[in-house]
Design brief:
heterodimer, A: 114 residues, mainly beta, six-stranded mixed sheet, four-stranded antiparallel sheet, 52% strand, B: 113 residues, 11 strands, globular
């Protein structure tokens, strides 16, 4: 099995509770942000995105909040389920001479206790 | 119906060998990427191609050479493999270079002996 990600910050929640995962991004010029979920042995899976002209966006059971003043992004998961257990990454899209490269944060492991 | 597929899923080889990883997407996207994920789960962009044209080439050793025969394929060839190349390599694609989510394959775990 995988022995990676042992040093990731971990958020442990009870099934049914709400989860909040936080991310600080680095570049004030970033204008597009994405949250990804990565399960063991899989690639990152798109959850939700937000553009810099918005401060909140809602999906199914998930909400992303963007605070450009302090360069902070959060992902809220309502009624967390065991299937939500994974590593969560925020990513910012850097404006850099049109390269549009995604820069990923370091990840947070979410553990849902049944 | 896999959208972004990579082969092989696991690759175990010896130092000094040359190996390739293949990636194909059936989403009709114009842009494809290669990322490297290290043992601490840190994901970093290596290359991106848009319509077969190289757009991003991060500070990756020139032992790594991407090749895009058509816009649905982006292969990664690695020469003279080193121990530090051990990682999980992810291919991804997006509609274009604008603000669109990237869709990832399930990765290729490369282990160098």
């Amino acid at each position: 099995g995988e022995s990676v990600g042992l040093h990731l910050p971990t958020l442990s929640v009870q099934e049914g509770d709400n989860s909040i995962i936080n991310c600080a991004y680095s570049n004030s010029a970033s204008d597009y942000f994405i949250w990804y979920k990565q399960e063991s042995g899989k690639g990152p899976q798109f959850i939700i995105d937000i553009r810099s002209n918005m401060d909140k966006r809602q999906g199914q059971r998930v909400t992303v909040l963007l605070n450009k003043t302090v360069k902070h992004l959060s992902l809220q998961i309502a009624a967390t389920q065991p299937g939500d257990s994974a590593v969560y990454f925020c990513a910012e899209n850097l404006q850099d001479t049109g390269r549009r490269a995604l820069t990923f944060g370091s990840g947070t492991r979410l553990q849902v206790q049944p | 119906d896999t959208a972004v597929s990579q082969t092989p899923k696991y690759l175990v080889t010896q130092m000094g060998n040359d190996k390739s990883i293949k990636c194909e997407q059936n989403l009709g996207h114009d842009t494809m990427y290669w990322y490297k994920q290290d043992s601490k789960k840190f994901l970093k962009i290596m290359f991106s191609y848009n319509n077969k044209e190289l757009i991003i080439n991060e500070t990756v050793p020139n032992r790594f050479s991407p090749k895009s025969p058509d816009k649905a394929h982006l292969n990664l060839h690695i020469n003279s493999l080193e121990l530090g190349d051990s990682a999980v390599y992810f291919c991804a694609s997006s509609q274009d270079l604008k603000d669109q989510p990237q869709h990832f394959g399930d990765g290729t775990r490369l282990s160098i002996l």
